[in-house]
Amino acid sequence: MNRLYLKGCGTALVTPFTDDYKVDYKAYAASVDRQVESGVHFLVPLATTGETPTLSAREKTELLRITRERVGGMPLLAGCGTNSLDGTLANMELLEPFGPDAWLVVVPYYNKPTQEGQYRYFRAVAERSTLPIVIYNVPGRTGANMEASTAIRLAEDCPNIIGIKEASGRYDQVSELIRRAPEGFSVLSGDDDMTLALMATGGQGVISVASNVAPAEVSAMCDALLKDDLKTARTLHHRLFPLFKGCFAESNPVPVKAAMARLGLMTGKVRLPLSEATASTVELMNKIIDDLWKSA
């Protein structure tokens, strides 16, 4: 297995829906093209931002097929994690023929596994996977945090666990991960507003929600950080910060879809149990978008 090294800006792609809540594959393909043309470093279909729990098997495979077809050799990190080993392995079997380069596997949700349970689960997934794996730690959604020591243990024991998307919001934990991570293990921010801090202290990149809206700008910030150009990175961070915060004014991806609608790229429709952005969120995102382009 070739060692994949993820760095820079990876966009967690939204899934556009039509007014009658069907997947808008045309808008999705255009969105993927926009990402590629804007210089993002890798793409992440079928994750949280893509409303993947609401998608059918056919929709998932078609979205991944379209993505692979349009990105050439750009790395694709596809979401496949569930809260059971069998469910995650079944997703891998379903999706692998459609060209992912690696899997994004979330810490199992609802079950609230212990650190030992998390370790055994990810080790079992890694042993059965033919592709590299990136752990996704997002305790605000799963109810269980993966501690730095568990992630390091997995990185050392499982050669095909190549990184972690860290969305715990705990900089002390992420800093420990960065300090102890083995060479070639990517620590990626799962929170746009923490990207500057993480990359400035040795993290490799971000899996971004905001880059759906501003792919060139978020990619440029990551490029600057990879070159240790903190002055440029700080300027971009401060320009983008209202967008970073606004994207979480309501549950992701509700606000980012409102922003994409403002740009005319897709509708703001989301599938139940999510509901469309409130009037105040639409107003907020409209202002953020207008101000962002004014400040260019």
UniProtKB/TrEMBL annotation:
EC number: 4.3.3.7
InterPro entries the record matches: Aldolase_TIM, DapA, DapA-like, Schiff_base-form_aldolases_AS
Presence of the UniProt keyword Lyase in the record: yes
Sites where the protein binds pyruvate: 49, 207
Pathway as given in its UniProt record: Amino-acid biosynthesis; L-lysine biosynthesis via DAP pathway; (S)-tetrahydrodipicolinate from L-aspartate: step 3/4
Record Pfam families: DHDPS (PF00701)
CDD domains documented for this protein: DHDPS (cd00950)
Site feature: Part of a proton relay during catalysis: 48, 110
Positions annotated as active site in the UniProt record: 136 (proton donor/acceptor), 165 (schiff-base intermediate with substrate)
Keywords carried by this UniProt record: Amino-acid biosynthesis, Cytoplasm, Diaminopimelate biosynthesis, Lyase, Lysine biosynthesis, Schiff base
Catalytic activity, reaction form: L-aspartate 4-semialdehyde + pyruvate = (2S,4S)-4-hydroxy-2,3,4,5-tetrahydrodipicolinate + H2O + H(+)
Family matches, as NCBIfam families: dapA
Its biological purpose: Catalyzes the condensation of (S)-aspartate-beta-semialdehyde [(S)-ASA] and pyruvate to 4-hydroxy-tetrahydrodipicolinate (HTPA).
Protein name (database record): 4-hydroxy-tetrahydrodipicolinate synthase
Gene of this entry: dapA
